[in-house]
Design a protein that fits this description.
Layout lengths: L9 H11 L1 E5 L20 E5 L8 E8 L13 E10 H4 L7 E4 L13 E10 L9 H5 L6 H7 L7 E7 L5
Pfam families: PBP
Keywords: Membrane, Transmembrane, Transmembrane helix
Family: Belongs to the phosphatidylethanolamine-binding protein family.
Length: 174
């Protein structure tokens, strides 16, 4: 039987790779810097996520981007502020870095309030259950900050993310 470093078997290693191979590349040098400015006066940066070639071509995925530290880490009363939500993303599109699907929440770049400290911005990728239509309730559509990610995941039977990553940032004036 072949073993990898730390005596992990191939099955365990394959699962580890599937869960950890979400690579996030920010297209800083591309056309995104010429886009709209945020209301903070800094150029908007558009995410260009690249996912593992292990994503299954014939499956659908849901991408969620949230700020779990809103309005600040000491008092995150708007935990999981929704910055982006896309469902029905084909695995074949993920393999080539295309996020095409049903946009449930338009992308909103990070805008941590002044003096709120560092914020984590998390990307979570879930496998979408077959034949399942994903939608937001009317209440959820109205409020980005009162959204309950845990309820959303449970309501649609999404389970654990198949990939995730995060980055830290703070207001550029701090």
């Amino acid at each position: 039987m072949a073993f990898l470093p730390f005596t992990l078997g191939w099955h365990v290693w394959g699962s580890f790779v599937l869960f950890c191979l979400l690579l996030l590349f920010w297209d800083v040098l591309g056309n995104s810097l010429g886009g709209k400015n945020t209301d903070l006066g800094v150029p908007a940066i558009t995410p260009n996520p690249q996912f593992s070639p292990l994503s299954l071509q014939n499956k659908k995925y849901i991408l969620v981007m949230v700020d779990p530290d809103s309005p600040n880490r000491a008092n995150p009363k708007h935990r999981f502020w929704r910055h982006w939500l896309v469902s029905d993303i084909l695995g074949s599109d993920l393999r080539v870095g295309k996020i095409k699907g049903k946009v449930l929440t338009d992308y909103s770049p990070p805008k941590p309030p002044r003096y709120s400290g560092y914020h984590r911005y998390q990307f979570r990728l879930y496998r979408q259950p077959a034949q399942k239509t994903i939608a937001l309730s009317p209440e959820d559509k109205e409020s980005l900050g009162a959204w309950d990610l845990k309820d959303f995941v449970e309501d649609f039977g999404l389970g654990h993310p198949v990939a995730s990553t995060q980055f830290l940032t703070k207001n550029h004036m701090d």
